[in-house]
Amino acid sequence: MHEYGLEMLLEIAHFWQSIAQFDPQHQRYSIEDVMGPDEFHEKYPFAQKGGLKNNAYTNMMVVWLFETIETLTNTFDAKVIDEQLIKTSAPKNFLQKMREIKHQLYLEINEDGIIAQFEGYFKLKELDWTAYQAKYSNIYRMDRLLNAETLSADDYQVAKQADTLMIFYNLSKKQVDHILVDLNYTLPEDYVEQNLAYYLARTTHGSTLSRIVHAQLAAIVKDDTLAWRLFQEALSSDYHDIQGGNHSRRNSRRRNGWYFMDSLKHLCGFRFASRNRYVPSSLTRALGNVTFQLYLAKDGLSCLSDEQLPRDYQQS
Question: Is it the case that residue 259 has pLDDT exceeding 70?
Fold first, then answer.
């Protein structure tokens, strides 16, 4: 990390710091001209140029980056940090400015605790999902259907795949909670459940991997039935190639990797960051007994499902 990783993180942080500008309207910093993971939204309705303002996923990942760098600067010797700052041509007061932005990036959040995909998202029109489902049946690529009707997905609250919710796929809920605290936002206790319900109702799953992300969110809020259903739908949609793609030639390894990781993390309750590397999960009941071998850094691990764990097992 001190030879290569820290240098990369500082360079990336330098970029985001350079485009984060103080917004007098919000009395916070804003990041403009970005596009989130959704892919349906590229610009605001009737806008001449592309790009969105204060994409929630982007802003929260920037805060995570700044938090990570702050942790590293408190871990490494000051000489190492100074050398890397010089090597990356970091501007004066770079770390101080980073700490300031870390607490003041803007998120648009409504009174129900829904984190807007981007600033102005709640002003977009709602889609008549029932009518489009009846008209086309297959609405996975709603952007193309709207284009065929001389309309645009940019005008509607509709997503191809997880955007705001992607933060929970990359980070744990505890980490996301910490980011929101750092930003001085207070959300309802059930904000994850509320956000999952809100965005799941507005997502077409135009990417079959979208269901994997939402399955993880369902597992986080302990809706095991929904998590298992979404996981099965994801597997089935790729196996039957419901979108007409050639998965044997396109993205098969990437998809298999996602399914494997989600199986480990949520069906088997495996956590790479945990001390014991195993956290029991009730989802294993849907699978029955699960046993597999996994190697991490040359260390062989035998992994068992809940039913196979010794009775005196203590979770750390």
Answer: no
Q: Reply yes or no on whether the pLDDT at 157 is more than 50.
A: yes
Count of beta carbons in the 10 Å neighbourhood of residue 207 = 22
Based on the residue annotation, tell me whether 39 is a catalytic residue of this protein.
yes
Categorize the per-residue pLDDT at 8 as very low, low, confident or very high, splitting at 50, 70 and 90.
very high
The kind and range of the H/E element at 79 are helix 78-87
Q: How far apart are CA 238 and CA 244, in angstroms?
A: 10
Cα separations in angstroms, 231 against 54, 93, 119, 217, 258: 30, 47, 31, 11, 11
Across the chain, what does the average pLDDT equal? 83
- Which pair of structure tokens corresponds to residue 43? 């610009």
Helices 56-75 and 94-102: crossing angle in degrees, nearest 10, is 130
Q: Whole-model pTM above 0.70?
A: yes
> What SS3 class is residue 101?
helix
Pick the closest to residue 285 from 237, 241, 227, 220 (CA basis).
227
- Count of helix runs (H) and strand runs (E) in the chain: 13, 4
Checking if the pLDDT of 280 tops 50, the result is no
Backbone torsions φ then ψ of 300, nearest 5 degrees: -85, 130
Catalytic residue of the set 11, 39, 42, 67: 39
Helix, strand, coil: what percent of the chain each, to 5?
50, 10, 40
Burial of 179 (0-12, 13-18, 19+ CB in 10 A): buried
Which single residue is written with the structure tokens 């999902």?
Answer: 129
Residue with tokens 């991490």: 296
